[in-house]
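Glycosyltransferase family 2 protein
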Amino acid sequence: MPAETAATAPRPAAFPPLVSVVVPVRNEAPNIAPLVAEIEAALAAIPHEIVYVDDGSTDGTPAALREAAEGLPEEGGEPLRRLRHRKSCGQSAAIATGVRAARGEWIATLDGDGQNDPADIPRLLRRAQAEGDAVLVAGHRVTRRDTWVKRRTSLVANAVRARLLGDATPDTGCGLKVFPRALFLDLPRFDHMHRFLPALVLRAGGRVVSEPVNHRPRLRGRSNYGTLDRLAVSLFDVAGVAWLQRRASRPVLEPED
């Protein structure tokens, strides 16, 4: 279905939604309308809601979200929900805000810059449902559409992280992931935690699988992250997550006599 027809397409009963698409954004005004249209087209046959979390944007993002919400049908519930942080608290905090507010059993996270392809969500959701509870399906950007410098720094960070954390995930930086809402709510939360979701899920006794996904170049706006500062933060946080792993304890209850 073409993206431009999504707003007029028949919607399945949306509530309770099967999946909540959580999109953290900061200063992504030109990407709002195109991405909302793509999400609606991709999930036209699946009961869903879209939860945008504006992490203290200073551009026209709030107005763009309002216009996008007004352009969607309201049958079956509220298709686009808008939450806003008064000031920027970071991507991990925005994801946590969205997951807490979500009403779906499953969560799909998606970067707001348009580089993740919403058309991949149904396939990842089917994989997650087939795998069962306590599973994280992580997108794997097999063909990255980023600069050479960003690809190389990500390669270094992924190699160090995999060696120290053993999370068996080739691309933890991909924003496209699907997991049960209840699983996320049991995880420890801290700044930059979204980069370590596979390790945290394994620590909690869950499973992690990866699926190849499409990756696209950024067409509008500019990144909120610098390459070198992101690498430095990621390497520093690895030590903290390794500390959490070493102190993990999962009690198993015995059946009553």
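thats it. The two ends are 57 Å apart (CA to CA). The longest strand covers residues 48-55. bye
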